[in-house]
Structures are given as structure tokens and as C-alpha cells.
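testing teh design pipeline on a random one, pls ignore if ur not involved
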């Protein structure tokens, strides 16, 4: 990108070293425990957990992109995200989408400055997260399984891409945006994620056709990696190393959920296109 500020100095450890494994494991265990427990609880607890994550993401995005009216951007965007989450939880998906789009447009209209489009994008980005996971979890069929499958492909891709990239090494995936990512890590990651997703589903589905599920898992894992690269590009665009320090020693909510947001949005749209919004989760797995 022309005119892009210089990126912070990369402090990534050499590919063969796993010195940052401890902090990653610690934060990963906590986040996995929270995500699984709220998924099992379902209902309001599930929506509130992801709403809290979406509010943190809006705050981080607005902090990174900057511009005037910082309080308005954080609070106003948060109000929009809460409204989207509430409407989605009530099953009013059309209204939730309308509020999200109008809220983002209002943000762009109220905020003056060169970053106004980026500021509006943050509301969309955060709102899409809570909307997508609520649509999937509240699906009339396979809601629980769809989120568990997403966890499997995204976490499996992320973890195994980390190990694959550092243990195998090789050509970089996109060095200008993310110097530590390799093609070996990408391929190992999405393959592992797709297989783990299939394994998880096999415990719940009576009839399961492996080929389309693996294909969908590979695509979902690739999209998750794309979401990770998007956030890396965004941080470089605005000169940030981490989205925030909400997770001690390991960045912010966006740093943990960038890939999941992309994969969840893809899954919700794909499933709804095949089986309707009310059965979006079922649309992922019935072939």
C-alpha cells in the first residue's frame, strides 16, 4: 500500500524456536474454557459472552483507526452492536442486519476525518461477529454442532499452522503483511482443522458425508487464515503491533478472534444460503 506507515519492528522468534509457546497455551486454555462453557450453556449466556467480545473488538478497532470523537465512536458503535445482538437473539435477523448497516453508515456520517470509513468498518466488523454466531447457535437444527465445528476448524488451523510453520518452515505466505506465516504452516493448518472438524461432527451426526465436510473445513480454515492476514494488514496500516493488551501478554480480542470472525461470517452466510436463516447451521452439514 502506498503511504502506509512503517510497521513496528518485527520481534517474531526464528521459525525453529518455540519460545512464545507458554503464553499462547495459557491464554488459549482460558479462552477455550470460556468459549466451550458458554456454548454448552447456550441461551442468554452464550449471546452475552459473544456480545462482550464484539464490544471489545469495536473498542480496539476504534482505538487503532483513530480520528476525532473517540468516545462517540466507542460508545455509539457499542450501542449499535448491543442492538444487533439483542435483535439477533430474538430471532429478528432482518432487523439486526438493517440496524447494523444503518449504524455503520451513521458512524461514517457523524465522524469527520480521514479515517471515517475505517471507523464505520469497525462497527460492521464487530456486529458481524455477534450476528453470525447467534444465527448459527440459534439455528433450529445443528446449532450447537455448528459452533463446535467452527471452533475445531479455526483452533485446529491456528494451532497446527503455528507448529507447521515453525517446525517445517519454508517460503513465506505473505511476508509484507505477516512475516512469520509460511505456506507450510498454512497447508498443515487448514488440513488439520478440516480433519478435526470432521472428527468432532462424527460424534453427533448419524449420516455424514466426509468429502463435502472436509472441503468445507478446508475452505473455512483458509478463510480464517485470511481473516488473520486482514487484521495483520490493518495493524500495519495504522502502526500497531497488537490490537490492545486486554489479554495479558498476548494482545487483544481482535488478535484472538480475527480468524474466527471471518470463518463464522462465512459459515452463517453459506448455511443460510443453502437452508435459510432459521436453519443456517443445518445447511452446513446436509449434502
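output:
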Amino acid at each position: 500500500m502506498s503511504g502506509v506507515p512503517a510497521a513496528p519492528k518485527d520481534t517474531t522468534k526464528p521459525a525453529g524456536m518455540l519460545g512464545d509457546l507458554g503464553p499462547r497455551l495459557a491464554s488459549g486454555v482460558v479462552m477455550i474454557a470460556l468459549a466451550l462453557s458458554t456454548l454448552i450453556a447456550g441461551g442468554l449466556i452464550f449471546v452475552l459472552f459473544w456480545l462482550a467480545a464484539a464490544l471489545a473488538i469495536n473498542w480496539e478497532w476504534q482505538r487503532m483507526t483513530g480520528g476525532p470523537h473517540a468516545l462517540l465512536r466507542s460508545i455509539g458503535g457499542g450501542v449499535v452492536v448491543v442492538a444487533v445482538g439483542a435483535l439477533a437473539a430474538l430471532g429478528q435477523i432482518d432487523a439486526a442486519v438493517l440496524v447494523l448497516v444503518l449504524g455503520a453508515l451513521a458512524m461514517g456520517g457523524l465522524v469527520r476525518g480521514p479515517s471515517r470509513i475505517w471507523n464505520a468498518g469497525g462497527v460492521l466488523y464487530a456486529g458481524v461477529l455477534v450476528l453470525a454466531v447467534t444465527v448459527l447457535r440459534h439455528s433450529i437444527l445443528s446449532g450447537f454442532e455448528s459452533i463446535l465445528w467452527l471452533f475445531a476448524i479455526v483452533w485446529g488451523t491456528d494451532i497446527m499452522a503455528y507448529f507447521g510453520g515453525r517446525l517445517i518452515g519454508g517460503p513465506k505466505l505473505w511476508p509484507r503483511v505477516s512475516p512469520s506465516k509460511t505456506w507450510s504452516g498454512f497447508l498443515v493448518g487448514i488440513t488439520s482443522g478440516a480433519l478435526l472438524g470432521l472428527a468432532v461432527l462424527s460424534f453427533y451426526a448419524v449420516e455424514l458425508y466426509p468429502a463435502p465436510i472436509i472441503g468445507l473445513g478446508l475452505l473455512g480454515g483458509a478463510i480464517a487464515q485470511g481473516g488473520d492476514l486482514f487484521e495483520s494488514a490493518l495493524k500495519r496500516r495504522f502502526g500497531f503491533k497488537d490490537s490492545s493488551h486486554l489479554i495479558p501478554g498476548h494482545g487483544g480480542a481482535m488478535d484472538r478472534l480475527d480468524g474466527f470472525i471471518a470463518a463464522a461470517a462465512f459459515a452463517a452466510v453459506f448455511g443460510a444460503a443453502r437452508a435459510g436463516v432459521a436453519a443456517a447451521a443445518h445447511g452446513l452439514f446436509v449434502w
